[in-house]
Design a protein that fits this description.
Length: 101
């Protein structure tokens, strides 16, 4: 497994100019760009990557976060999550993305 970690959504978009990934895991709350903004940019700039996105958050009580998780259609993991659950969601998203291409 090859993993690249970045600091924020802007860095993630810059990396996507050079590389494609089986799965993208993004926090909903990031410096400089919200998860919703990241999703919007991903939809515009890299639409084929949207079905590879997983959101993580520890803040499900905020209205904007709960709305994003409910309305976006993006799989999500609520922190703290166990690694078995992370592995399961990673596998589901990666497998679905492979069959979609």
């Amino acid at each position: 497994m090859h993993v690249i970690a970045v600091e924020d959504g802007g860095d993630a978009l810059r990396v996507l100019r050079r590389e494609r990934f089986d799965v993208i895991v993004s926090d909903v709350r990031m410096p400089g760009m919200s998860g919703g903004e990241f999703l919007d940019r991903l939809r515009r700039e890299y639409p084929a990557m949207v079905n590879r996105l997983i959101f993580t958050t520890g803040d499900t009580f905020a209205n904007d976060t709960s709305s994003l998780l409910k309305d976006s259609g993006v799989p999500s993991l609520v922190k703290p999550y166990d690694f078995a659950k992370l592995e399961d969601v990673l596998r589901q998203v990666a497998d679905a993305a492979k069959t979609a291409t």
